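Thread: quick sanity check before group meeting

JM: Hey all, I'm pulling together slides for Thursday and realized we never actually wrote out the predicted structure for the chain we discussed last week. Dropping the sequence here so it's in one place. If anyone has concerns about the input, flag it before I start.
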Amino acid sequence: MEKQEKSIEEYYTVDIVHIAKTLWKRAWFIALCGLWAAIIGFLISAFVITPTYSSHIKLYVNNSSFSLGNTNFSISASELTAAQSLVKTYGDILDSRSTYERVIEKAGVNYTWKQLSDMVKYTPSNGTEIMRVSVTCTDPYEASKIANTIAEVLPMRISEIIDGASMEVVDSAIPELQKVAPNITQHTAIGLILGIFVAMIAVVISALLDDAVHDEEYVLRTYDYPILGKVPDLLNTGNKSYGYYSAKSTGKRRS
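JM (edit): ok, ran it. Output follows.
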């Protein structure tokens, strides 16, 4: 008769208690990694990343009657939805190659129109007829200079394209010396959290890959083998979790 081989299924069990104990024992390592990562995040944000500054202007969108081509428009000051539509229209005129090229030439800055487009953002101010234009770059004085140049160029561009349309400057730009990026506190906190997370992942992986025998419960739970004996703790390590004998013991095994 041919011997029938028994199918052997191997199971891999995850010892949650062992992982938790390992994390607790390695808490100093996790905290140290978090501290070092926080320091690195602080140093990078404070000394490596180039700070940027922002300056802004506010322009009033004149919503009196104007004509576009052969069509006449008459917009009331109370029609905020129409005013917001005008802000978007004027913003699209701002965000055009020809407008940015005029701004670059008048301001005398060394940027391409695409680079300047990335630096300029416009939004309606609280849903009103006021358009807020922000310029962000690495020099606060240059940011305010570009913003004020936009305040000069944009109304002329709009009047050239839309008959009867106009804009008025509500607030001109001033240099803002408080940087908008990077946020040192945020980068430091991100470094701390990331360092702790990576350290915990490393400790958990090391615990999962650890196939050493830690105590008799591990043997009974994992292999279901009987315990025949233990090595006495003749060096008096004081490790009670292993149930070893101690040099100070009276001959009775510790529970």
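AS: nice. The radius of gyration is 35 Å. The chain has two domains: 16-45+183-211, 51-171.
JM: adding both to the slides.
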